[in-house]
Design a protein that fits this description.
The chain has 274 residues and is mainly β. 6% of the residues lie in helices and 34% in strands. It is built from three helices and 17 strands. The strands form four sheets. Strands 5, 6, 8, 9, 10, 14 and 17 form a seven-stranded mixed β-sheet that branches. Strand 8 (72-78) and strand 9 form a beta hairpin.
């Protein structure tokens, strides 16, 4: 059965990927971009899990780079919530079509075919998942990737003229999900964050993000690959042993280092001998 998926052409751009491109995944490389700091967040690995450190109040983007050489359907979830429909996430739900060797930026919860509500790191109680009664899976980003089913060969009928051109109708397009209650500002959420508090993702400012519905028939009901990235604050990841703290190098003086060198003058250069 054919399923509708979203093509966000305005934010997907084809480009050549260098060998060994950064990111988590095989069919696609998934990275998280801190939009406020304008940098890609480094990935830390512990016990087979990928982690990133977010800063409370900062907006972010989930970037999916397709390296498979074919179209992929990316079903994206944040905190256990589908970013397109707002439903509790399942791999069978709607997602975004990412063209061969193209890149897609998912920067917010989709409110309509024209707008999204920006992702931002925040405290767990202020997260969109918690505010909609689903706090159990806060702190994780998921991308389920599906290949497209190859088309079946069909017999081509001879062309017959038609008196009227067939016009497609947009009446069957699904309605946008209902708007959620507006969240508190990112700045106030950042100020309320305390050490040890887990991070979640908030429902932020409205942004223009055009998309359109397209058909995508999956080759299988099961994902070809599922990519998972966990996130939390830097302090919490240090406490969990995911990030190693950078301590200053301890001094280890040597009582017998060798011959005596000339002292350095306070004006620069070697001091004159006595």
């Amino acid at each position: 059965m054919k399923r509708l998926a979203l093509a966000a052409a305005a934010i997907a751009a084809a480009f050549a990927l260098p060998a060994g491109a950064a990111g988590v995944g095989s069919l696609a490389r998934v990275t998280v971009i801190d939009r406020t700091a304008n940098r890609e967040l480094p990935v830390y690995w512990k016990d087979g899990r990928a982690w990133i450190a977010g800063h409370p109040g900062n907006e972010y983007t989930v970037r999916v780079r397709n390296v498979a050489g074919e179209d992929l359907l990316a079903v994206v979830s944040v905190d256990g919530v589908n970013v397109v429909s707002g439903e509790t996430a399942r791999v069978s739900q709607s997602g975004y079509v990412v063209g061969s060797y193209a890149s897609l930026d998912v920067s917010g919860w989709r409110k309509s075919l024209a707008r999204t509500a920006a992702f931002y790191f925040t405290t767990l109680p202020d997260s969109y998942a918690a505010r909609t009664g689903r706090p159990d899976d806060v702190g994780v980003i998921g991308v389920a990737l599906f290949r497209r089913k190859p088309p079946e060969p069909v017999a081509v009928e001879p062309w017959r003229p038609s008196p009227f051109a067939k016009q497609e109708s947009a009446a069957g397009a699904p309605a946008a999900p209902p708007a959620a209650e507006r969240s508190e500002s990112r700045d106030s959420a950042a100020k309320r964050a305390q050490p040890g508090d887990p991070l979640g993702t908030g429902h932020g400012r409205s942004e223009r993000s055009p998309a359109q519905w397209v058909e995508f028939e999956r080759a299988s009901p099961y994902p070809a690959e599922t990519i998972v990235i966990h996130y939390d604050s830097t302090a919490n990841l240090v406490a969990q042993g995911v990030i190693r703290p950078r301590y200053p190098r301890p001094r280890d003086p040597d009582p017998f280092p060798g011959f005596v060198p000339d002292p350095v003058s306070r004006y620069g250069g070697a001091a004159p001998g006595g």
